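Worked Example 4.2. Consider the chain below.
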Amino acid sequence: MKYPLDRRRMVSLTLACALMHGGVALAASKSAAGAGIVRAGAANVASPDAPDTQSDAGSAEDMASAPGLDPNADTGGSVQGDVADLMQLIHDGGLTEMRTTYNGGYGASLFFHAQSMTYYVALFQEKHFWRVIRTSDQGRAESIYAGFARQTAQLADVEIRRTQLQAQKASIERVIGESQARAQRLQADIEVARAQEAKVADYQRQTQDETLALRDEKDKAQAQLRQLQQQVLQLQRQAEAGLPGNR
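Applying the procedure from the previous section yields the following structure tokens:
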């Protein structure tokens, strides 16, 4: 009777061991499967990020290769964006005007935004912003401002020369007008003088003619007077003839 009992115990122990080994294997397989799932999930999570990184790199390359754009410049945006930013800051009163140079209708200004410690250098014409550079480097801002100031002097040369020529032309035209007015006055005086001279000449001729006529009349009257005096003398002699005292 002992042997069958021992056999049953041995069978039970064998089954228990088998069950234990099977459970460990199943747990190990489940753990491996879970790890595989985790690794697969991590790969799936990481893979969508790869295209984004490539896209960002491509955008940086596009910006670097675009003409007129310096990816290393600290302007913080396009020129139009800086212009709009500067105009808004001026409108809001958030800037300090540090330097300004005027040459003709052109000018350059250096502004400082204290809140962001940013410098704005602007080139403008007739109060319209032309170029705006934004930088946080004071030395670079001063250098750009000096360059813009020199540029305004060069740009204004033609405008200043035009203004000077316009002033000279206006002065010459004014002198021409004054000379023409003077010439007209002199011409009027000459015409008056000529008219008066003609009148004087006519008067002189008329007076001369009258003088000659009066001289003739005087001579005739003088001759007539002498004739009458002689006639009176003869008549007086005739009247006194034969009177005492007459010889």
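The two ends are 249 Å apart (CA to CA). The chain has a mean pLDDT of 74. Compare this with Example 4.1 before moving on.
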